[in-house]
Automatic annotation (TrEMBL):
Location(s), subcellular: Cytoplasm
Name of the molecule in the record: 3-oxoacyl-[acyl-carrier-protein] synthase 1
Family per record: Belongs to the thiolase-like superfamily. Beta-ketoacyl-ACP synthases family.
Keywords: Acyltransferase, Cytoplasm, Transferase
Length: 423
């Protein structure tokens, strides 16, 4: 018999708030974390803005030992360790130095690219013939699984500890991988999430592709405009989100706080065929992913109360809405309420899915739907399919029972997860 899976812990390092309390307040109040970055101007970027979590030196000392901080130069690892450790503590789980690992707990924590600044530092030292000055942590900071390795050591997990990578779909995919492991009875709990580095060496490639907005450098908070007629491209961001998934029986046994239940989901690919490409989704694959998630969750399309979309603030936003209307067979007033977090924090790349999953779960738990900032002018193409009130501009206080969260990534890969309010 398949296990029921619930969420018992949350952690986040987001451009508009580090820590769950600060983050929830920010999304309820429509606070933007997008700022101007002078370094990007110095380097002649067209888009000189981005979303970056604010982490002080004092904050770092709460999560890393002096030895770990020596030579630490990977923003993704910093954000991932903060969010992952916070989620573990939020779940009421101890962090101890016992000799035996926790055999029932594992980690699936994804990333897209890790340790870019450390790589740059290493290249300069190697080219200068100073390889011995690299330090002993250059490998762990630059290998993709560095984030799960850091967290595995801090938390002492003895079950599966690994890293996944599927572009913008990474965080949502990690959650579903952890869900499946618990559901199959292979683990009692899994820390899942994802992180992303920030800065010019991560964001430069996107600037070169001319898919970032270049006319909002003097108005950074207005730049990210999902579902808006004036959307001009996605704003790059960074950070990390983390969730503790747990077997319901285990959670109840230890009296854990339960945020929500994971009913199921789907992951697929459009194969970069039939309109799908390295950067664009195959529409049929997206619709299949949505319908597959509903089938696995044993949910009727009419039961979806809310959608937290991928919705990056590009011309593809209207296409995403069209795919939702077709997959759910619901439109106009019958369509669920929909929002996008990217208006507040930009597109956090490999961290986007996990941060947005945290925001989705908070909405279910605390009976609100955050507003879509910078969407004063909804795209007319979208309004042909759904009514304006389905795109709330300000936070709504309402109970939501079932929420669908989607992520669609480069490489034509898709993931949809279905969350239910726990009662």
């Amino acid at each position: 018999m398949k296990k029921r899976v619930v969420i018992t812990g949350l952690g986040v390092a987001s451009p508009n708030g580090v820590g769950i309390e600060e983050f929830e307040s920010a999304i309820k109040n429509g606070k933007s974390g997008v700022t101007f970055h002078p370094k990007l101007k110095e380097l002649n970027f067209s888009c000189q803005i981005g979303g970056k979590p604010e982490v002080s030196e004092e904050k770092l000392k709460e999560y890393f030992t002096p030895l770990q901080l020596r030579g630490l130069n990977s923003s993704g690892i910093i954000y991932g360790v903060i969010s992952g450790t916070d989620a573990w503590r939020d779940a009421g789980l101890e962090i101890s130095d016992e000799k035996n690992p926790d055999w029932d707990s594992g980690i699936i924590f994804g990333t897209g690219i890790l340790g870019v600044d450390k790589f740059r530092e290493a290249i300069h030292l190697i080219d200068a013939g100073k390889t011995r000055r690299l330090g002993s942590t250059s490998v762990i900071q630059t290998m993709a699984s560095g984030i799960s390795a850091y967290l595995g050591g801090i938390l002492g997990c003895g079950n599966q500890v690994t890293t996944n990578s599927s572009a913008c779909t990474t965080g949502t995919e990690a959650l579903l991988m952890g869900f499946e492991r618990i559901q199959a009875g292979k683990a009692k709990r899994m820390l899942v999430g994802s992180c992303s580095d920030d800065g010019p060496y991560v964001w430069g490639g996107f600037d070169a592709m001319r898919i970032l907005p270049g006319k909002y450098n003097d108005r950074p908070k207005a730049a990210s405009r999902p579902m808006s007629a004036s959307a001009a491209g996605f704003v790059p961001g960074s950070g990390a989100g983390a969730l503790v998934l747990e077997d319901l029986e285990s959670a109840l046994e230890r009296g854990a706080k339960i945020y929500a239940e994971v009913l199921g989901g789907e992951v697929n690919s459009g194969g970069q065929r039939a309109g799908g490409s390295m950067t664009a989704a195959n529409d049929e694959a997206v619709q299949r992913c949505i319908r597959g998630a509903l089938k696995m969750a044993n949910i009727d399309p009419q039961q979806i109360d809310a959608i937290n979309g991928h919705l990056t603030a590009t011309t593809k936003d209207s296409v995403e809405i069209l795919n939702w209307t077709k997959a759910l067979q619901r439109e106009n007033k019958e369509f669920p309420v929909i929002n996008s977090l990217k208006g507040m924090i930009g597109h956090c790349l490999s961290a986007s899915g996990s941060i947005e999953c945290v925001a989705s779960v908070l909405q279910l738990k605390n009976d609100f739907i955050f507003g879509n900032i910078n969407c004063e002018d909804p795209d007319p193409e979208i309004l042909k399919m759904i009514t304006s009130e389905k795109i709330p501009r300000k936070t709504l206080q309402q109970e939501t029972k079932i929420l669908a969260k989607a992520s669609f990534g480069f490489g034509d890969v898709n993931a949809v997860v279905i969350f239910r309010k726990f009662a």
